[in-house]
Amino acid sequence: MRFVREAEVRAVPATPGQFTEGVWRADTITEAVGDGLRAQRFSYEPQARSAWHVHDGEQALYVVAGRGVVVRQGAEPVAIGPGDWVHVQPGEKHWHGAAADDTLVHLAVTAGGQTHWHEPVTDEEYRAGTQ
Ligand code: MN
After folding, report:
1. In angstroms, what CA-CA distances link 61 with 1, 43, 56, 104, 124?
2. Nearest Cα to 90, choosing from 119, 113, 62, 61?
3. Ligand 1 centroid to 96 CA: how many Å?
4. What is the pLDDT of residues 54-66, one digit of tens each?
5. What digits encode the pLDDT tens for the residues 90-108?
6. CA separation for the pair 37, 46 (Å, rounded)
7. Distance between the two ends of the chain, CA-based, in angstroms?
8. Quick one: average pLDDT of 110-119?
């Protein structure tokens, strides 16, 4: 068993190309075995967001604070707020980000498998997702 103390967690800028500027990532649970469970906390400035991406495994998002949006390709955007969960299914192309006028903090718990990064979310796609 491994205990993770908030006091030991450090946020770093999220990887360019995977996220816009203004996103911070804190790795909280790292894989105990190969291809295992991992958990992170993401903090977004207003309008900051991920690129389009696909997870091989399942992903659970839990919103801690602020307001944001999750968009699955081909589906209507869904606004998310504190206490909400999102269960992303394997293979669903999607992005997540903050609202235009609020920050967003969410946890991401990701099952095994890779994350495949695709193109950035354009300003037009972002506006369509957050109106
Ligand atoms: Mn995701």
Report:
1. 23, 13, 15, 12, 24
2. 113
3. 7
4. 999 999 999 999 9
5. 999 999 999 999 999 999 9
6. 29
7. 44
8. 94
Class of residue 76 by CB neighbours under 10 A (exposed 0-12, middle 13-18, buried 19+)? exposed
Give the integer Cα–Cα distance in Å for 115 and 32.
18
Per-residue pLDDT, averaged over 37-45, amounts to 97
Cα-to-centroid distance, 115 and ligand 1 (Å): 8
Domains of the chain: 6-130 (2.60.120.10)
Structure tokens at 114: 């890779």
Contact 81, 67 (CB under 8 A): yes
State the pLDDT at residue 88: 97
CA 1 / ligand 1 centre spacing (Å): 26
The total of other beta-carbon atoms located within 10 Å of residue 68's CB is 29
